[in-house]
């Protein structure tokens, strides 16, 4: 028997077909040799061997027909083997597609997570910037108050409690120089110089504004 009916790799689905092929092989004086020799070979090898047998004039025509029937069975076997191979390849490609889809989904999820983290960081930076701006404003306000306090203390100390007739009241002088201080802070005049230099310049300005008044008072006292 050339073809085994129970062989799942034969490619045949009907036992009657297998039985008929085996009977034709045996009726023409053939046997399982040709089929068993080429059952794992490529179709090219099978066809080349069959061509050699058919072209050989020393081989009886019955044997040629038996080999032809065996080659037919081998062709079905090769087709079945190629179909299984292609099916495995398709399944492999399908698995790769599923893996790529899963990887794409994972990357998309990671990308969305990174975007959310970026938005959160941007929000935190903006909040920190606003807080820093508020702190700087509070610092400038406290700095201004400190300078106002030191100015008032220094001017009061230099006055030694003496007020000349007709002199400009000290509170008014302090108020005027505080306003000048505000203008200087806003324009950046006092943003770089050290604090002592600021106080010295402000005190000098206050003393300069008092000199004409002091000179007039001294002249009146002499007369």
Task: Describe this protein's structure.
The protein is mainly alpha-helical and 223 residues long. It folds into 2 domains: 8-86, no CATH class; 128-222, no CATH class. Helix content is 79%, strand content 0%. The chain is built from 6 helices and no strands. It has helices at 15-27, 33-38, 43-55, 61-159, 170-187, 195-222. The longest helix is centred in the middle third of the chain and has 99 residues, at 61-159. The radius of gyration is 55 Å and the shape is rod-shaped.
How would you summarize what this structure contains?
This protein is an all-alpha fold and 223 residues long.
Question: In which range does the helix fraction lie?
Answer: over 70%
Largest sheet: none
- What's the overall average pLDDT, rounded? 80
User: Which stretches are low in confidence, meaning pLDDT under 50 for 5 or more residues running?
Assistant: 163-168, 189-196, 209-215
**End-to-end separation:** 156 Å
Using only C-alpha atoms, the radius of gyration works out to 55 Å
Spell out the helices and strands N to C.
Answer: HHHHHH
Topology at a glance:
Layout: H1 15-27, H2 33-38, H3 43-55, H4 61-159, H5 170-187, H6 195-222
């Amino acid at each position: 028997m050339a073809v085994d009916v129970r062989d799942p790799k034969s490619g045949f689905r009907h036992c009657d077909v297998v039985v008929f092929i085996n009977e034709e092989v045996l009726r023409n004086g053939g046997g399982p040799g040709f089929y068993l020799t080429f059952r794992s070979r490529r179709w090219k090898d099978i066809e080349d061997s069959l061509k050699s047998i058919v072209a050989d004039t020393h081989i009886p025509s019955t044997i040629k027909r038996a080999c032809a029937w065996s080659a037919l069975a081998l062709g079905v076997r090769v087709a079945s083997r190629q179909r299984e191979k292609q099916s495995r390849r398709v399944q492999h490609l399908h698995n790769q597609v599923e893996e790529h889809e899963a990887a794409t989904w994972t990357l998309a999820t990671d990308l969305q997570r990174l975007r959310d983290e970026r938005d959160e960081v941007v929000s935190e930076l903006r909040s920190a910037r606003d807080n820093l701006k508020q702190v700087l404003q509070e610092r400038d306000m406290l700095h201004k108050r400190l300078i106002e306090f030191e100015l008032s203390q220094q001017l009061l100390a230099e006055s030694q409690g003496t007020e000349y007739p007709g002199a400009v009241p000290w509170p008014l002088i302090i108020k005027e120089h505080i306003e000048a201080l505000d203008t200087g802070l806003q324009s950046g005049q006092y943003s770089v110089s050290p604090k002592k230099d600021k106080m010295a310049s402000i005190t000098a300005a206050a003393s300069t504004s008092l000199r004409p008044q002091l000179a007039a008072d001294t002249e009146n006292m002499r007369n």
